[in-house]
Design a protein that fits this description.
Elements (H helix, E strand, L loop, with lengths): L1 H15 L8 H17 L5 H15 L8 H25 L11 H16 L16 H4 L2 H4 L1 H18 L7 H27 L7 E7 L9 H14 L4 E3 L10 H18 L2 E9 L7 E8 L5 E6 L18 E4 L2 E5 L8 H9 L4 E7 L7 H13 L2 E7 L2 E5 L5 E6 L7 E7 L6 H5 L2 H18 L2 H19 L13 H9 L2 H4 L12
Parallel strand pairs: 1-2, 2-3, 7-8, 8-9
Antiparallel strand pairs: 1-12, 3-4, 4-5, 6-7, 9-10, 10-11
Helix pairs in contact: 1-2, 2-4, 2-8, 3-4, 4-5, 4-17, 5-8, 5-15, 8-9, 10-11, 15-16
């Protein structure tokens, strides 16, 4: 009884620091070790109270990270907790049905599969992924260049059943314990060596470009555009060749006002001979209460190169959804791509930039204090996955420039930094990665392997193998193009509650009544 209570306490403490507000990277490895030991020790019917405690802990760690209140917050976080408890249930069912090393695989396969499917179909993308907890472990972070998030998730999740087996859990024989421990040790060593080598032997940047971000306006003013115009001129005078504004920097009251604003932006870029990523929130024509959350990319000759609308508005955000096509421009400073804030939480969307050989991705954003710096760190994973440098300029959050290894080149925090400008020397040449070419193959293989184990369990060995192979082949084919398809999202019930609880007009300081005059 004493051992059980001690394990339960260690599991609870580990969970509190394994995700959400107070992430400690080591806790993400250790918390599943203790929780898995509990779920394997108790009878299946007792998994319900274990899940109840698990949910309470999630309600604590995601306070203010999930910007909801009351019943909406409770239902949303309970759904998140339920998603991440599924692997423990699957492990509990199947762990005793297999022997040897195979008995350790249902848990990591299920965890990876659950995270991947959740990222595809829920409107919050990859939020709460275990992989994001490893941002401060650079050698592990580099695995994202091969497998995306999914290889890191698998490595984290596999650690728990391996420790359980190696320490004598499940009555494993000494030979099985040794084999299991050695296999995981070799894999972990390979991951660390690959990551260390990728960091140590990176090619030196032959050329860099000075990119400036204009930090978000802090005080009320009748003309916010003047703040961004004047600071853009200061940035150009200081040597910046590319200037980026935060999300929703200027909010024209009508389409006619926007036309005048854009003419001023064009003149600003041409006079200072810079590339300008100007951002605006403009009322959408013909759609009452909705806005165009956009970046207008302007060249040094004043030409509008493209206008990009946010492809993935946050559930509840009254923005018109963009086409889902990420623009890329060829410039003297490499191929420059564009995305906006929440777009970065969807690896399949951002992989377009990797496939287009983007060298630098410019990302205006807008956060809130509870997700600072987590949301910017999440975006940095996309840089490692796809081989580009990232410049994310964020209102009410952490602005940062990172290279294609995830190393921070410069950063500033809205809540602690008074400067209105942030500068970074950014490499103009990116690099190709396995993930940008092959996509989510690792997650698909995990789904296939899990299906294979399930069918071996459900059928006789011979029929199970044949059936498993057929199903796995079909599943692989079905998921093979998930990186380019436009997901028909499930209406995760949290999305509707999000829409009713979050007041984006107040967040972005929109007026209550807006006109939608056509130009």
């Amino acid at each position: 009884m004493y051992n059980f209570l001690l394990t339960a306490v260690l599991a609870a403490v580990g969970i509190l620091f394994s995700n959400g507000r107070w992430i400690i990277p080591a806790a993400a490895w250790l918390a599943p070790v203790f929780l898995l030991r509990i779920t394997r020790m108790v009878k299946i019917r007792y998994l319900i109270p274990v899940f109840a405690v698990y949910t309470v802990l999630y309600l604590i760690i995601f306070t203010k990270v999930v910007p909801l209140t009351g019943i909406s917050y409770f239902l949303t976080v309970t759904a998140i907790a339920g998603t991440y408890f599924i692997p423990y249930v699957i492990d509990r069912i199947f762990c005793k049905r297999f022997t040897g090393v195979i008995s350790t695989l249902p848990f990591p396969l299920a965890w990876t599969a659950v995270e991947y499917v959740s990222a595809l179909f829920n409107p919050f993308g990859t939020w709460a992924s275990a992989a994001y907890t490893q941002f401060y472990v650079p050698s592990v972070l580099q695995t994202a260049s091969l497998t995306g998030l999914w290889g890191i998730v698998f490595l984290l999740a596999w650690f728990a059943p391996v420790v359980f087996t190696v320490t004598g859990g499940g009555n494993a024989s000494p030979q099985v314990q040794k084999k299991t421990g050695m296999l995981y040790a070799v894999l972990l060593a390979a991951v660390l060596c690959f990551g260390g080598a990728r960091l140590k032997f990176r090619p030196e940047a032959a050329q860099t470009v000075c990119i400036a971000g204009v930090n978000a306006l802090r005080e009320e003013t009748d003309s916010p555009a003047d703040y961004y115009f004047s600071n853009t001129e200061k940035a150009a005078a200081a040597g910046a060749k590319i200037v980026v504004w935060p999300e929703f920097a200027v909010k024209p009251a009508s389409r006619n006002d926007e036309a005048q604003f854009l003419e001023q932006c064009r003149a600003l870029a041409a006079d200072n001979e810079i590339y300008l990523a100007a951002t605006a929130g403009t009322p959408a024509a013909g759609e009452k209460g909705k806005y165009e959350n956009k970046i207008v990319m302007i060249g040094p000759d004043g030409t509008i190169l493209d206008t990009y609308l946010k492809s993935r508005p946050v559930p509840g955000e009254p923005s018109v959804r963009g086409s889902g096509r990420l623009p890329v421009f060829t410039t003297p400073y490499g191929n420059i791509g564009l995305a906006i804030c929440f777009d970065m939480d969807f690896p399949a969307l951002i992989r377009q930039a990797g496939k287009s050989r983007t060298d630098i991705l410019l990302v205006p954003g807008n956060d809130w204090k509870a997700i600072d710096p987590l949301h910017t760190q999440m975006a940095a994973f996309r840089a490692v996955e796809n081989g580009f440098s990232l410049v994310r300029i964020t209102g009410s959050g952490r602005s940062a420039a990172v290279d294609n290894r995830g190393e921070i080149l410069s950063q500033s925090d809205y809540f602690t930094t008074d400067s209105s400008l942030q500068f970074a020397q950014v490499p103009v040449k990116g690099g190709r990665t396995v993930y940008s070419t092959a996509g989510d193959y690792f997650a698909i293989l995990c789904i296939a392997a899990l299906c294979f184990l399930v069918f071996i369990f459900l059928k006789s060995k011979k029929r199970g193998i044949i059936t498993g192979l057929i199903i796995c082949t079909a599943a692989t084919g079905a998921f093979a193009d998930t990186n380019v398809h436009r997901t028909g999202e499930l209406s995760f019930f949290a999305a509707s509650t999000f829409a009713s609880q979050v007041d984006y007009r107040q967040k972005f300081e929109f007026p209550d009544n807006l006109t939608t005059d056509r130009i």
